[in-house]
């Protein structure tokens, strides 16, 4: 049996690939535990400077595996426990100081929306569809959807998505601010490849630059709700001071100053 998540680290980039393609990468217990384990490892490794989330098969993530719920889950407490396992991985990504890019081709729905929202920069295909759909089967949002969707698109739009069975088109998702870029392909398979390639370019941009600074910038924005305005200003001041003392920043600041002086002559 293949691993429910494929995990690799190369050149500072950790790639996490959801790998239940025949179930549209919907979460069962095995995928939930693998998700928790690989996200925890990726965010705790010193050699990881950027993370890429993608998926095998025709879709990014269809949320929870409803068939598995119906046949193996005896009570709501089982569902809640499974959500708790997945939530550990969501927290690992969102609370880390490592930027995350998602390559989300195909459909993203239900809890898959929460997985998409774990990313800090999302690339989707022109054929992609994104929605909530929880209420269609009598369930409520989980996996951070109610926590992160409003922050991403605003409360009114979040309500539109969770109170209807609407699937946003890729362009609508971009217009709403849910995703950053839309990539086209000649067919679905080509489009998926192009989405991954563009996500790799984004990660490569971070890695080629001041990766640590990008990570800290992500942390500042993500953690803002924990602090008052004054506390956030203090944290910004502390963070930029700490960044200035890093070898990377010292080299880049010196190079910028030298180039500026040369230009001024």
UniProtKB/TrEMBL annotation:
Q: Which is one GO molecular function term here?
A: isomerase activity
**Keywords for this entry?**
Isomerase
Q: What is this protein called?
A: 2-(1,2-epoxy-1,2-dihydrophenyl)acetyl-CoA isomerase
Q: Does the keyword Isomerase apply?
A: yes
Q: Provide the transmembrane region boundaries.
A: none
**Highest taxon of the lineage:** Bacteria
The Enzyme Commission number assigned here is 5.3.3.18
Q: Which Gene3D superfamilies match?
A: 2-enoyl-CoA Hydratase, Chain A, domain 1
Enumerate the SUPFAM superfamilies for this protein: ClpP/crotonase
* Xref: CDD domains: crotonase-like (cd06558)
Q: InterPro entries annotated for this entry? A: ClpP/crotonase-like_dom_sf (IPR029045), Enoyl-CoA_hydra/iso (IPR001753)
Q: Name one Pfam family in it.
A: ECH_1
């Amino acid at each position: 049996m293949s691993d429910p998540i494929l995990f690799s680290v190369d050149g500072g980039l950790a790639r996490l690939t959801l790998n239940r393609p025949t179930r549209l990468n919907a979460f069962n217990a095995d995928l939930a535990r693998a998700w928790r384990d690989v996200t925890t490892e990726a965010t705790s490794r010193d050699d990881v400077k950027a993370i890429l989330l993608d998926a095998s098969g025709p879709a990014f993530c269809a949320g929870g595996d409803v068939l598995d719920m119906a046949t193996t889950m005896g009570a709501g407490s089982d569902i809640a426990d499974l959500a708790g396992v997945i939530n550990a991985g969501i927290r690992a990504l969102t609370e880390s100081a490592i930027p995350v890019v998602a390559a989300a081709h195909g459909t993203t729905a239900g809890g898959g929306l929460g997985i998409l929202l774990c990313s800090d920069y999302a690339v989707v295909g022109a054929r992609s569809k994104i929605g909530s759909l929880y209420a269609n089967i009598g369930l409520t949002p989980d996996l951070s959807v109610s926590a992160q969707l409003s922050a991403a698109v605003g409360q009114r739009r979040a309500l539109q998505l969770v109170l209807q069975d609407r699937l946003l088109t890729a362009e609508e998702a971009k217009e709403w601010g849910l995703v950053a870029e839309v990539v086209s392909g000649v067919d679905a398979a080509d489009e998926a490849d192009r989405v991954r390639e563009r996500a790799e370019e984004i990660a490569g941009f971070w890695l080629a630059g001041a990766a640590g600074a990008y990570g800290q910038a992500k942390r500042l924005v993500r953690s803002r709700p924990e602090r008052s305005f004054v506390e956030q200003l203090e944290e910004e001041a502390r963070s930029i001071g700490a960044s200035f003392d890093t070898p990377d920043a010292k080299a880049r600041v010196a190079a910028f100053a030298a180039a500026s002086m040369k230009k001024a002559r």
